[in-house]
# Entry
Amino acid sequence: MRLFLLILILSFASSRATQIEILNNCTYTVWAAANPGGGKQLKQGETWTLNDVTGSGRIWGRTKCTFGSDGRGKCASGDCNGRLDCQVNGRAPNNLAEYSINQTNNADVFYVSVVEGFNIPMEFGAAASSSSSSNCSNSVSRCATDVKGACPMELRDPEGCNNPCTVFGNSQFCCTSGNICEPTSYSKFFKDLCQDAFTFPYDFDQRNSCPTGTDYKVVFCPASASMIIVYWGQNGDEGSLAQTCATGNYGIVNIAFLATFGNGQTPLINLAGHCDPTTNGCTGLSSDIKACQSKGIKVMLSIGGGAGSYNLSSAEDARVIADYLWNNFLGGQSDSRPLGDAVLDGIDFDIVGGTTMYWDELAKALIGYSQQRKVYLTAAPQCPFPDAWLGSALNTGLFDYVSVQFYNNAPCQYSDNADNLKSYWSQWILIPAGQIFLGLPASPEASGGGYVPPDVLSSKVLPFIKRFSKYGGVMLWSKYYDNGYSSAIKRNV
Ligand SMILES: *[C@@H]1O[C@H](CO)[C@@H](O)[C@H](O)[C@H]1NC(C)=O
Ligand SMILES: *[C@@H]1O[C@H](CO)[C@@H](O)[C@H](O)[C@H]1NC(C)=O
Ligand SMILES: *[C@@H]1O[C@H](CO)[C@@H](O)[C@H](O)[C@H]1NC(C)=O
Ligand SMILES: *[C@@H]1O[C@H](CO)[C@@H](O)[C@H](O)[C@H]1NC(C)=O
# Structure
């Protein structure tokens, strides 16, 4: 009987209890705190796991603490009544990982909140090992940018960026009137930097949710997920696709271009001097594509380009092209696949010709195939906002990565200063897409304007654009012109 009970308890614990692992990935020591849960000093790389988490609670980080052997002392931020082992919430400014386990429909709700200000970059998400993480409505919330550096003067704090309620104490910021509160100029400041964080007391759209039973991970100072995207294919002297991926500089390579399609034309790729598609000579690229993918690099087919012949004549035409792309380059089947049997990761829209219509229909039709196998959608609009060709396609919200071409476009490209670039970037970063990339020429010869020298990019441009949480990295045109540029900027992207 006792053995039976023990087995029952063990199986209950292993299948139901929620775990939250807390990792300090900062180069400095963080005193992690949880209410309920207590507290623990974490040096760089150390973790602390909360077991059997139920109900609602919060996790945060404290900085510059000193504690005696009795566990009493103080911290410069996040202090909880001077105790290592927190029994109460921390003192602002501090950002929070907040959760409520097993709410409506057996789901957990969780998010990073900056309602009480910011002190340490943080990410809160489903643990990668959690089997149910694929069923989350949104599996990660982060505020991982340099909020402290960008903090408005009146909110500054030696250890972070304060919340306006603590500083001004009025009912608009503290939301004490009893009415529903609206965003304020300060909550909008936080939202610009941390678009998937909870930024004011009624920011309920921001909720992330996973099935109860999911385990979670809180990371202080998470990796920035940024990368460099490069175009390859328009010059036979730029090295092979496999060599391009072997540089280790790129996260995505766009094969450029499928230059002829739509309006009844027979689709045709153009890869300049690399291979001749008219004699089926490009199928050998399959092994290069697979070599890239084995390194974790995504390989996309870019459609369009500056010199192509393409034009969607109707919504039906868009669906026909989507079907062609699926069967010939993605997860479908065809006996005439131009790049052989390798399955590309998705389709990149580089559209500067034909009509401005039906590109949204093409995006919708392609995403339809994602049920069978994930199809990434990326795009490279011109920097004037909104883009004439791709504006409505981008408004579908279906694009994972959008690389805005800040070159060949005088009104918005860099020229002596980055004022115009920054002002257009601030518009682009708000579009409904996964991540936004800064598209640049890889050398002065690569375009008719817009080149940003690597040192200027790293010191004057990236510090500004990286503050936005949807910043994804830099896109370069193209591999042929990239003779050292990606290597020079890689560390700062
Ligand atoms: C969640 O709560 C419901 C009751 O509201 C309970 O029946 C269920 O067992 C709980 N689920 C977990 C995983 O604890
Ligand atoms: C996730 O969703 C799939 C399909 O909707 C379902 O079969 C599976 O049981 C779910 N997994 C969890 C852990 O909820
Ligand atoms: C920790 O930070 C380093 C450096 O930024 C990064 O490479 C690594 O992926 C991070 N780890 C996690 C779990 O975020
Ligand atoms: C695109 O195709 C439509 C329909 O055939 C045609 O009317 C239009 O002139 C074409 N536009 C371009 C720019 O080729």
Notes: Residues 131-132, 135, 211 surround 2-acetamido-2-deoxy-beta-D-glucopyranose (ligand 2) (CB under 6 Å). The radius of gyration is 25 Å.
